[in-house]
Design brief:
4Fe-4S ferredoxin-type domain-containing protein; 2 helices; two-stranded antiparallel sheet; binds iron/sulfur cluster; two-stranded antiparallel ribbon; Alpha-Beta Plaits; alpha+beta
Amino acid sequence: MPRVLSPNEKKCIGCGLCVIKSSLIEGSTIDLGKAFIRIYGRPKSYIISVDYGKKTDFKDIVKICPRNCFEIIEK
Ligand code: SF4
């Protein structure tokens, strides 16, 4: 079974660090167009969108979130 990044939207504060980090994983510079995570919505109702067409099980994403919104699971 593939390992994937699983988000918990209830804890998200919309800081965008995971988006920036996912962009840096894809390339050497910050380019939000290449990020495999996107954050939508507004405070208390953020939506975390993960592009599962790409590899997502990066521990660096789990570590960078100040709210511990991510875990890596087998799907
Ligand atoms: S790093 Fe965590 S709190 Fe910040 S936007 Fe991403 S999921 Fe939300």
